Amino acid sequence: MIACEVLRRQYLEAMGITLWQRRVLLANEVMVGTSEQSVVAHGAAPASATAAVGLQALAGEVASCVKCPLHSTRKQTVFGVGSASAEWMFIGEAPGVQEDLQGEPFVGRAGQLLNAMLAAIGLKREQVYIANVLKCRPPNNRDPQPHEVDCCEPYLLRQIELINPSIILALGRHAAHSLLKSDLPLAKLRGRRLTYHGIPLVVTYHPAYLLRNPVDKRKAWDDLCLARDVVKAS
Ligand code: URA
User: Fold this and answer.
1) Which residues line ligand 1 (CB under 6 A)?
2) Which CATH number covers residue 201?
3) Model pLDDT for residues 16-43, shown as the tens digit of each residue
């Protein structure tokens, strides 16, 4: 419990939430936090060569995809980024304007918050894998359409198959609904160990939502703790 509290504190601090605490406690907790971090941090395992090669080939396929109308408005496809042997896989909804320009998921403000969330659980961005349900930006950031999700899902499934993560984090309502084929409210999907094609999945808030509703960052931390427990048990 103490370790989780320390990590929660680190997470909240990384996310810009200041907590008041007695100084004597702080000194102890930093020590505990340091050792706990080394427990939860996953060293960068050498990427599976097969997975890396497979991902590279798939990225090439995605880059020339014209299966849905989004190909005509995208600047470029946004395939995914991270370790081919990641234990943690984060899946968002679709690229936004910055991602469309840079060709990498979660590089805007929401991405900075996602990086802070990763840091709080002792993970670096390059240790995890980050992707979206859609590989192309919907014009004006509108919601993904069912036909677009249907066209893109085989690419995501192949990414998951190659990486074979221990946990998938679905970021936000749209990602959760697209993956789980459910329209349950996020409140009903959070806090549970679900599965997507046999891989454990935890639903949490989208970082962009958390930027607008910082009060829910604490609940997002609970989701990360649940995901960490699932990874530890795997
Ligand atoms: N929001 C998403 O869902 N994905 C991104 O890559 C960026 C913002």
Assistant:
1) 92-96, 99, 105-106, 110, 132, 208
2) 3.40.470.10
3) 555 545 444 333 333 222 233 222 334 4
